[in-house]
Specification:
Elements: H1 12-63, E1 81-82, H2 96-99, H3 117-122, E2 128-133, E3 147-152, E4 170-171, E5 174-175, E6 182-187
Antiparallel strand pairs: 1-2, 2-3, 3-6, 4-5
């Protein structure tokens, strides 16, 4: 009777097959994880904007006006107060006492740095922006008084295009929705 030899182990082809399958699964998992993170940051952006609108309304109740733009240097900024251009915790710091916190939240990525929001918007830059306008500017109805515009420069899931649920804000001469991914504004009167 011949003695059979038994082999234990795997062939190189079997091992390579397993490594390829593990690589594919890891790649799919990584892409899914990044998408989930991006959606979570966008959800935070919307929650922050909701909180800002409520806090701005509370500020107006106490002061009969919305806060003026107060940024610390870093170029012209074209009149916008921007969370990325301010030192940590200074974006709309006039709202801190109203909100009962030491600093208002900023965009989770918060990486814009230029002086032109349209340039930042097309270069994967993320920030919150705020501007306060005098009555009648941009073709808005002067009888409604001064007004503010606040928004998210861009989001990760929609890029530079409008995000679902953005209330939008426009006047005769300007539509801020075309400049920002999420935007709203309010008149003082």
């Amino acid at each position: 009777m011949a003695k059979r030899s038994t082999r234990f182990g795997f062939t190189i082809v079997e091992l390579m097959f397993v490594v390829v399958i593990i690589g594919i699964i890891a790649s799919i998992t990584l892409v899914t994880y990044r998408n989930v993170q991006a959606r979570a940051r966008d959800d935070r952006r919307l929650a922050d904007m909701s909180m800002y609108v409520k806090t701005l309304d509370a500020y107006k109740s106490f002061n009969q006006t919305y806060p003026v733009v107060a940024y610390s240097g870093l170029g012209a900024q074209n009149g916008w107060e921007s969370s990325a251009r301010e030192a940590a915790g200074q974006f709309l710091d006039s709202l801190d006492s109203i909100a009962g916190q030491s600093s208002m939240p900023v965009d989770p990525t918060n990486n814009a740095n230029g002086n032109d929001i349209t340039v930042d918007r097309t270069n994967s830059k993320f920030t919150y922006v705020y501007n306060y306008y005098t009555a009648g500017t941009n073709g808005c109805d002067a009888t409604k008084g001064n007004y503010y515009v606040i928004g998210v420069l861009r989001t990760e899931t929609t890029g530079a295009t409008k995000i679902a649920g953005s209330p939008g804000f426009s006047c005769t001469s300007r539509d801020w929705q075309s400049e920002l991914s999420w935007v709203t504004g309010r008149f003082e009167k």
